[in-house]
Amino acid sequence: MTDDVVTPMMAQFLQIRAQNPGSLLFYRMGDFYEMFFEDALAAAEALDIALTKRGFHKGEPIPMCGVPVHAAEGYLLTLIRKGFRVAIAEQLEDPAEAKKRGAKSVVKRDVVRLVTPGTLTEDSLLEARRHNFLCAFAEVRDEAAIAWADISTGEFRVMACTLPRLAPELARLAPREVLVSETRDRDLAGLVTESGAAMTPLAKSSFDSAGAEKRLCELFKVGSLEAFGSFDRAELSAMGALVDYLDLTQRGKLPLLRPPVKEAPGGTVQIDAATRRNLEITASLQGGRENSLLWAVDRTVTAPGARLLERRLSAPSRDLATIHARLDAVRHMVVQSPLRHELREALRRVPDMDRALSRIALDRAGPRDLAAIRSGLAQAETVSKLLTGTPELLSQASAALLGHEGLVDLLDRALVAEPPLMARDGGFIATGYDAELDETRALRDEGRGVIGRMQADYAETAGVPTLKIKHNNVLGYFIEVTPTHEERLRALPELFIHRQTTAGQVRFTTVELNALETKILNAGNHALEIEKRHYDSLKGAILDQSGPIGAAARALAEVDLATAFADLASAEDWSEPQIDDSRAFLLEGGRHPVVERALRRLGEPFIANDCQLTKASTPAIWLLTGPNMAGKSTFLRQNALIALLAQAGSYVPARKAHIGLVSQIFSRVGASDDLARGRSTFMVEMVETAAILNQADDRALVILDEIGRGTATYDGLSIAWATLEHLHGVNRCRALFATHYHEMTALSGKLQGVENATVSVKEWEGEVIFLHEVKQGAADRSYGVQVARLAGLPASVVERAKVVLEALEQGDRDGRKPSTLIDDLPLFRAAPPPPAPKPQKTSDLEDRLRGANPDEMSPMEALRLVYDLKTLLN
């Protein structure tokens, strides 16, 4: 083509592309989605597929690449994960219709959907056990709010949320995409990106609160939103922007969202992003699910139950009645072990009804989604029958599982046991459901039998045993023989009519075969039309009951979680926590659930420890000292995780737990930098510590580890000292404060709420043995040199460190400054050669053991040896 000529098809592509800026355009051409120009270049690189050319534009070849329609979901997932958005342009008419307008007419196409990270519904694009939230943040004058929805499940919530609270809420929800006003996108870009979400700016009109109320009323088909609660202008703005974006991306086919639920800002435990990261609640520090708290405690057997578990761990409740109701349900399932096992077996057969329902509403479903609703509701009835005489939470769930008999019966009669994936494949309506369909199928199937008999007759008539009757979409039914037998059929022109000759085959037809083809084709198409009609009818019946179906799905998730927590408690010997409105924090035999599981794999025991931060009217702080590797960080984290589990409604890994309601959990554990934002390790530590000191109230639980270690010794000590005083005197909270600054242990005698605790170690012949036991008192040293030896430092370095340490400690006792010791400690001299290895000394105890021969000892001699060894040991 010339530089100025653009084919009609390419003109259509460019037009649709211009209407959807910022997205790759998947342009449907038959069995492929094709991309051109810059889209092709970007997609070929991202997907690692071949880049070809098609025609010319302005004198240059047009880059092109494509992916098969049947495999498109896999390519979409790759593109979404790499940060792309994709516009799907489908053919809106049959190519035969386009040809009626002229030989060069282009098939009508348009975008039917924008695929973005927050608007996914296909199972292959989603994680079954995690939500896929789309969030919107809105500000109206001095008000601000956040709304979030998972269109794959229908979840829809909103909450007042000031700008300083936005980061913690995004950390809690872990959304895939966040909508913001285009006037604020630059201000919020860093905050949203830090949460791991994609940011999408929208026009100010999308956030108009007046228009939002109208959009919401139209979506839920109500005259007023008052039935759902009272919403301020910012909350309406956030919800309206979210619905407006869904209307844009789904091209008018809005998902089946449940009525919005307004969350109270103080209804859950406040946990900021740094604390979630440090405690590894839903993801480990390496970024995956494995080795997180969620990974360690997840015993759910359904995908909705797993999503509910993640929500509970991410946002433990602060409402005592709610916590007690959840614990009552778990206790009942712990006691009723046979019932628990029976329920879990029934729940294993429950499909993901929430996501099936969402796909049905968006017209992206297939017959298997209808079958999923059938199976889920049938299992709901089975589960309900088992829930008799149960606590209130489970009784309410049981009630939501009933009343679906009519729909289950309809779906059971209408659908075959194992439907195909796609409705276009047919064969999903059961025999006996529709007499007309049965007759049409019989005609279609009988015609196929006639084809077989006709083939045998023609083979005998022509004398060609290898004659075949075949079918394709171009020729329909035809008779096929090899060129060797062509003349035998041509010798009977009154019967066989030549149609086509290929390289290796010759094809014929007959008048009788053409007539039969029309009959079979009409029967097959008619049967498929009848099935599609029933498919639409069944979809309508399901959508009419979408509310009760959604309630049943939530009830099943609640039962799944209660039985999963009970199964975990029974298997791991966890105990029921006592939760009240006091300031108590008493744990006996507490354990870290993740570390304990990891040690079990290695065949090693976990050393349980007590913790008591119970003070009636004063702050309660444990100042924890002891060497590295002794288990201080594990002890700190396990107490925070136990509090979190308790208020999430779970039993806890401890012999006994009495916890006064915790309002906030703050954690500053571990060292990390933020080089992308120009922050050193010490700066990150100070920023996180400042956030704790500025926010923690007297109901908070704070755990701090090694504050001030990233700077000079005296600077670090002074910062740690002042921080502890602030926690005690201003925040007045419950806290665990680990430090290497032994000078701080003197504070226990000056501050009423501070007690010293230490992690025990034992020295044995110059070696340090970590006992991992926490006890009252203070450590007298850090054992840093011994830990360095355990880490594998060269022996010469360890020995030199001992010399330097002894000199520094002696200088400290003599009142000399470290700088005056330089002459006595030539630190910069060449390192001496490593000393020759010393011969291993043996103890009397070892000598006695080596000299004993158990096979020749009498019982009395063996007993005497044991007493002798015990004497030597002491």
Explained architecture:
The chain is an alpha/beta fold and 874 residues long. It has seven domains: 8-115, DNA repair protein MutS, domain I (MutS, DNA mismatch repair protein, domain I), CATH 3.40.1170.10; 129-265, Nucleotidyltransferase, domain 5 (2-Layer Sandwich); 299-359 and 367-404 and 545-571, MutS, DNA mismatch repair protein, Chain A, domain 3 (Orthogonal Bundle); 435-521, MutS, DNA mismatch repair protein, Chain A, domain 3 (Orthogonal Bundle); 574-782, Rossmann fold, CATH 3.40.50.300; 793-833; 844-873, no CATH class. It has a seven-stranded mixed β-sheet with strand order 13-23-24-25-21-26-27, with helices on both faces. The chain has a six-stranded mixed β-sheet with strand order 3-4-2-1-5-6, with helices on both faces. The chain is elongated. The termini are far apart. The model has no long low-confidence stretch (mean pLDDT 88). Belongs to the DNA mismatch repair MutS family.
Give a short summary of the structure.
The chain has 874 residues and is an alpha/beta fold. Helices cover 45% and strands 18% of the residues.
Number of helices: 29
Number of folding domains?
Answer: 7
Oligomer: single chain
Rg: 36 Å
Annotation, overall tally of beta strands: 27
What share of the residues does DSSP label as strand, in percent?
15-25%
For the biggest β-sheet, the strand order reads 13-23-24-25-21-26-27
What about the largest sheet?
7 strands, mixed
Which class of secondary structure composition applies to the elements? alpha/beta
CATH class of the largest domain, anyone? Alpha Beta
Mean pLDDT: 88
Share of helical residues: 40-55%
Query: What is the CATH topology of the largest domain?
Result: Rossmann fold
In CATH, the homologous superfamily of the largest domain goes by the name P-loop containing nucleotide triphosphate hydrolases
Low-confidence residue ranges = none
C-alpha termini separation: 99 Å
CATH architecture of the largest domain: 3-Layer(aba) Sandwich
Overall spatial form: elongated
Keywords: ATP-binding, DNA damage, DNA repair, DNA-binding, Nucleotide-binding
Domain DNA mismatch repair proteins mutS family: 700-716
Region (Disordered): 827-857
Protein name: DNA mismatch repair protein MutS
